[in-house]
Amino acid sequence: MAEQAYTVASDSETTGEDKPTTPYPELAIGIDIGTSQCCVAVWNGSEVELLKNTRNQKMMRSYVTFKDEIPTGGVSAHLSHEHEMFSGSAIFNMKRLIGRTDTDPVIHASKTLPFLVQTLNIGVRPFIAALVNDVWRSTTPEEVLAVFLVELRAMAEVQLKRVIRNVVLTIPVSFSRFQLTRIERACAMAGLHVLRLMPEPTAAALLYAQQQQQVVHDNMGSGSEKIALIFNMGAGYCDVCVTATAGGVSQIKALSGGSIGGEDILQNVMHHLLPNLDCLFSSHGPNEIKLMGLLRIATQDAIHELSSQDSVRVEVDLKNGSKINRVLGRAEFEEINREVFRKCENLVMQCINDAKVNVEDISDAILVGGCSNIPKVRSLVLGSCKKEEPYLGMDPLEAAVCGAALEGAVASGISDPLGSLDLLTIQAIPLSLGICADGNSFVPIINRNTTMPARKELSFTTARENQTEALIAVYEGEGTKVEENHLLGYFKVIGIPPAPKGSPEISVCMDIDASNVLRVFAGVLMPGVRQPVQPFLEVKMPTVDDGHGWCAEALLKMYGSTLDLCTLQKKMLQ
Amino acid sequence: MSVFTGSIYSFSTPQPTRAHRHFHPNQPISRRWRQKSSVITCCKRTSESMSTEDYYELLGVSFDSKPQEIKEAYRKLQKKYHPDIAGQKGHEYTLKLNEAYQVLMRKDMRREYDASIGSKSRNGFSGLGHSAWKGPLRPQALFVDENLCIGCRECVHNASNTFMMDEALGSARVKVQFGDDDEKIQVSVDSCPVNCIHWVDKEELAVLEFLIRPQPKEAYGVFGGGWQRPSNVFMAAQFFQKQLKQQESDNHNKRKTAQGTVQETQAQANARATASMKLQMEMFSRIWTWVKEISGSKI
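Above: the input entities. Below: the structure tokens describing the complete assembly.
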């Protein structure tokens, strides 16, 4: 199959039979890579269709098994038993690991996963390895993700009978731009071009917009604006968005998200069941890994059961003499995870506040993602929105991928004669973007929840007499100090004419286009001169590489405040 | 670190802005510059993106439109120009749409914007002329009374950088004030067979240029409608100026009222006096209210 892609046929030779069966050769497919599960969907000309693997499954476990030479992913491979996934040879939870440094608490929490996660706690990438024939073989989350994406791509190509190149991926809201580059990197490794990266709840919002428009078409009613809150909680991340929908346009009012999810709930319950979990499994031997796998499966099942019943019996034989045999009640479960639920509630409240909508104006509360089945999660989201019932129009597990497939069709320029694709998603920026100035303060240039595409400009000035160079360090996040935010990149503005401090104007402009590419422009303007002193610099962000945890410290150590910038007070201009 | 005062900006004249403009040729000009002297405004009018600067015009809504209408217009335009649909070339336009939408949807920002574009909110008059200026401002400006113009093109022929033909209306118009040297301009003024090119005060120019543009006529069903302009534009301008002044003073009064600087009524004065007395005489206040209560109940 693979060779065929390289054969070139002349025009005369191509006959009707060779043509792809789908009418849209460049149509982008939608992929939802979840922390635990994954699915692919495509616009088939009249509706969104979920692709099934050879075993007729729509949802595929996201994992890659390293066995012998060739790694195989969860798309086509068949596990003889679920325990095989927890034998140490399978890597999963890539989405929790990708693009994080080893100082990240999420990485530390991942150490109980049944494979090797090593940290040095200095801000470099963690060491991840799978057990192959009793050898720990190192890998990277990008590699694992790429292997998995290659399988997804192959599956889709077989079914759609054409080459797949463009994809729309769903991503968590809280992903930093550096993490997004890692996702793009994995896609590139798999030969895929990322057309759009959509935060998961906004994908569900687009599906909602389509459904609402359908309702309007059917009822011939007026397309009045509807405000919906979408809560998406999967295994790895919890995201919330508020969308205003009318006439097939989903306008994202606000986004919020955090790296809390089913995995945290699982960890909490595991630690609750086995308080000395960390020291028991610290050596990461093959036996410990197996036991960890056993405990994981038992806990996972128990949590699922608790969604429908009040208590569940957990029985795990840990072989080394200890046994877990106890009843876990729902109240107990909720108590263990109180912190997780509190964080979820905060995200919902923050999102409603940021969107500046009244709770009463919210027409629908939409719950999607695997964790939306947990009764406590449902009640807290519905409580925050003052709703009795959640919106029932979409499948909680398929909503995001369907939205991604719709966006794939819209952004590929496909229109539908029946108006089903008369849609648009107007996205917002989930995290503020700014630069380091006034010492180590973070000065936002584009604030979060600004509508995309966006362009904002801010003026800065020199902090020292006769300063000839200035460092522009670009950060992303909500903290007031730069240390609390993600470093995206840095560059120097050079050739500032010697002048008293405060007189050169250093203009920094940020531009984000609809595909979420960030460009930073910077240059010096002297008072009384029309043209910029030097050509403006245009830098595509992020520029940081792995080990970026070190960059900020190194910058500070090397240059200190010699290249500092100060904000200009805009009010003075008026 | 350092705290800056306004002094830095005393010499940071309009030039940086022009450099900004150079940098982003299509970005709407920030509002703050609008309030500066007319010199800048005039320089800016030469830039091509001027017509898109008006947020209302950009969204295709009227000045008194409700947020709902703005929202609908915004969505409609987004569906046409968003980069998802129009591709990368929609980027610049969508940026402008977003900015316009953001300003007009927020009450405080919209009010500020309305104020910055002058008394436009009522009748569509922006306070700015249609023609651009070349060179320094002069007390006099050129104006073509398009009602009289017969479309002979003499003026365009003689001073092509100053005058232009409006092919749709079939009349000449000033494109750039003093776009040619004085001699050429004088020749073209003299060459006009119907003497419709006038020297006017620069203060009058904006109103005249606004009024000479055909305005949509109000239609009643199938009757009326179409376009019209005042038959005597100079008379109309005088009347319009008067109206504007009236409006301005009205606004001024309203603001005064809002600030509470109007004279208080006798009753209000009394209330205030009572209140301050109460505050001053804390000790007596209780007895005072008690006495009042007693007297009140008796009444």
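Note for the figure: Residues 1-21, 570-574 of chain A have pLDDT under 50 and may be disordered.
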